[in-house]
Amino acid sequence: MKPEMISPQSQTSVRKMLYAFSSLNDLGQVITSNGSFDEVTRSGLYLILGTLSVARGAIFHYSTEEEGLKILAAKGVDEAMFPLLPLPKEEVPTLLTAPHVVNLDAAPAGLDDFIALHGEMFRCLHAALLVPLRVGEELVGVLTLGDRFGGGEYSEEDLQVLAMMAQQLSVAIHNHRLFSLLQQKAEENRTLYEDLRKIYHDTIRAFAAAIDAKDEYTRGHSARVAAYAVAIGEELRLPEEVIEGLRLAGLLHDIGKITVDSSIIRKKTCLNAEEMLEMHRHPAVGYEILSKIQFPWGDLSSLARHHHEKIDGKGYPDGLSGEDIDLEVRIITLADAFDAMTTDRPYRKQIGLAEALQEVKRCMGSQFDADVARVLFRVLEKELSGGVDPPRILPHLTMEYDAAQVCRVIRAFYQ
Fold first, then answer.
1. Tell me: the pLDDT tens digits for 362-389?
2. What is the pTM of this model?
3. Are both 142 and 262 inside the same structural domain?
4. Quick one: which of 132, 215, 235, 299 could link to 95 by a disulfide (CB 3.0–4.6 Å)?
């Protein structure tokens, strides 16, 4: 169709349609931009004011908690004058049922009392129009606009465009409110989880202390095993939940010793067959205790049951071997034995760090998993050279050691 065939009325309608779509598109781009909510709200207000040639305006969001309107953005208005505009919840239905755009000089029936009640507020805002910002049956805020430049009247098309832009703005504010509530709930849940986690850990540490208290020689043993196991797990870059499981398994691996007679645990001479059988029961007893608890960090009961298994299948209680022993169990097994070697026990004195590492090397492939042992050596080598800050194993050792000698043992291990 040729341009001259379009009637003046049609041309006007097309211009109005393009004007509306352009304005809505511009506002949509502002609302969906990556700016902060304050920036988006301010830019949205400026765009609305610019589109309608208005000098003054303000956007408020409605706070249900404070029962009032709080300013989000303003232009041509002193924001400091409006810290909170009271809007009792009884008055909210008035705005929910009001027209999309309210002319404050010619308010429809039913709004007279509301406008009269808040007349001073509207005068301070230099407001000519009031636009309730609604999503469904919820009031999210209000938008006020002053007179147009030059005192011109708002056209019907202006009001239609304003109503559509206000709807977009309403959705943006509503979504921000929902997101803020979700963030708040997530933070509350995170805090609750951390509190529960702390209680969980404190309880487990108390159990560990009760276990270790049966023998003055093993006091702190469970905490050290946990620290060594975590150091190995972190060096292996295991998932966070697995490392957390190692920490707790280290603390609880000997829980079955609670049922072992203290005289057996503290005996300074070799155990007889009956006493050895009693001592060998503690992993299975630990399993029975822990299997009744649903832990969020994996099967800790299995780690307690198998921490005396050996790679060659000669351990107890199930005689597992090789890959049948889970990686976490292999880590706990080495950490447990390493601490036993480097601390005093009723039946023998501790051995030095270099000697302990030589013993670990000797038992690779029989008692210990070779790959896990290599990781222990690697962690110690990094700590001795200052490559780990803070160190994770050396501070827990209860002995003095010759760093140069230990480094020679480690280097020989790699040759």
1. 999 999 999 999 999 999 999 998 888 8
2. 0.58
3. no
4. 132
